């Protein structure tokens, strides 16, 4: 079963409040994310980023407000039911592996949902895991285990994909594979929500950025505009990603934030320079 | 014991202390709190397993404050020795034999803990077991019978599950990890 | 609360072995006596032990919370379901010998809880480690007791993560008993595998820090074991031996 464009779901938080033992983690957050958007949530530790995403899969229940995924009210569903729509990749997802081969572990989620093997093979291929598909996950190095866990969620072909620090601990090649896989999901119409401290990665995948601080939204802007604007990032405690910094320093046209856009703009500069 | 054995023992103790959370999440009426001890018995040996079992018992008391469990330390020694013997006889190679051996341990463990519960505490220890005892007594069973039946019913299921889970874990061990435990080769 | 409570009482300042010896002595005494009155004398002694350390208020609450459910069950098990003769307490027939038994067993529980919660509240873990090291207890044993306590919270957090993660992969926690039994594998196996995967790393880290299993460390500041400490521990030993001698020889003769 291949993914058809438009299979994503809109995600909506409406005036959501949440508290841990009386300490407010979210103080009235409202966000409307149309289907097919790739959203990055940024903010310092303790800002409420992970709390916000955990509400999507029903692992936490809001104290006030409403969370919905497409036409589902999250409050009415258990996490294992929501898994049919929302794929959630945890920060330490490598700890969830337990099957004797990579392929079997990746197939665990799809089997629970009654899906076929198509998603399993696609996810293994995308993340470069086909060569080691018959290995034991624990015979692979730690970064590869993290990719196995990600593959296990991609294979469930969810309409909404939530990733918590997906690039932490990954090597360059793994990171590039994750970026490519997320871009492909975005083209398919999947809604992607990424929580990350890795701004260079965020610049590569995100269309929209929301910054949280102390449980409230302090910025909500298109990725290109926010990440290219050092003056806007500074009060949020953020620095522009390297490609954006290079682009700004050289005054490149189009204010690129992605490495390849930056390279293309640089090429253009040289071209015009030699042509003059 | 080598330093590495000690680290495995520590891990076994920690697993004993936290695995009850899994049973609670699934609302299963079992403790599973000897799984670390049995695992250490299969990976390192009986001596290490006894240390793991007794340490678990003491730390359990320290963490929960419920020191009335201390006299049941004897049961931990019995479990450690039985599990090591079962491992040596190859009981963990197949799920069926593991469950059967676990059932056997359930009988042995209950036969050890029921007299302690009866003579020292009048049948009142370890939450769930006491409730079962009370219900059976209310239904007219004599007290020693009620205590024994409660101990057996919980232990048989619990220990069968513990042995089954350890068998699954051992079968799931990656090669790189398995070769580092010479006990497994026997 | 359960755990160490800093304080300046004589028990806090005593050698760490002394409160532990008193608590163990009280536990053994609770089983040595079998008359309801005698058992509750031991309970009173345990309460006095807590009061002398200034922690009676702190340990009473957890002791009561831990003991209450068992007391209730004991009252039902022995008092209501016990044998004749009965006394009528309002509309219910209450067994006299059963009530006595409930008092004995309930008292033992109370004494053990009070005694060890007090020991826990007065013995600083750091001083206990120093004392054990000074006595030449092998590093391995000390390490095992202390370091496991630091591993447990981390492993607890991991259990929660695994339960969450497998639910997000479509694993249902509820359902039929059989379905719940089958869910044990995907939850327990990753817990054990991820922990075993860390064994060599942890062993290496400890080795680097010089923690060989047979090596002995020198205690930095061994707690003083005073003459009073030794006298108290000897007194506890004598009392326990006397109680058991009386129990077995006295009762038999």
SSE map:
The complex is a heterotrimer of chains A (276), B (186) and C (253).
Chain A: E1 11-20, E2 23-33, E3 38-42, H1 49-56, E4 64-69, E5 72-73, H2 79-82, E6 86-89, H3 102-112, H4 118-126, H5 142-154, E7 160-164, H6 172-187, E8 191-195, H7 199-205, E9 208-213, E10 216-222, H8 223-227, H9 230-233, H10 242-250, H11 259-275
Parallel strand pairs in A: 3-8, 3-9, 6-7, 7-8
Antiparallel strand pairs in A: 1-2, 1-4, 4-5, 9-10
Helix pairs in contact in A: 3-4, 3-5, 4-5, 10-11
Chain B: H1 3-18, H2 20-25, H3 35-43, H4 46-64, H5 73-88, H6 95-121, H7 127-138, H8 143-172, H9 175-178
Helix pairs in contact in B: 1-3, 1-4, 3-4, 3-5, 4-5, 5-6, 6-8, 7-8
Chain C: H1 10-13, H2 17-32, H3 36-52, H4 56-80, E1 86-89, E2 92-95, H5 96-122, H6 125-134, H7 139-168, H8 177-182, H9 184-196, H10 199-208, H11 227-252
Antiparallel strand pairs in C: 1-2
Radius of gyration of chain A: 19 Å
Q: Roughly what is the average pLDDT of chain A, rounded to an integer?
A: 90
The most extensive interface between chains reads:
B-C, 63 and 68 residues
Distance between the termini of chain A: 53 Å
* Tally of distinct domains of chain C: 2
Q: Find the count of extended strands of chain A (DSSP E, 2+ residues).
A: 10
**Which bin fits the share of residues in helices of chain C?**
over 70%
Tally of separate helices of chain A: 11
CATH topology of chain A: Rossmann fold
Largest sheet of chain A: 6 strands, mixed
* Count of distinct strands of chain C: 2
Question: What is the topology, as strand order, of the major beta sheet of chain A?
Answer: 6-7-8-3-9-10
Mean pLDDT of chain C: 86
| Radius of gyration over C-alpha positions of chain C, nearest whole angstrom | 24 Å
User: Which structural class is indicated by helix and strand composition of chain C?
Assistant: mainly alpha
Sheet-strand content of chain C, in percent, reads under 5%
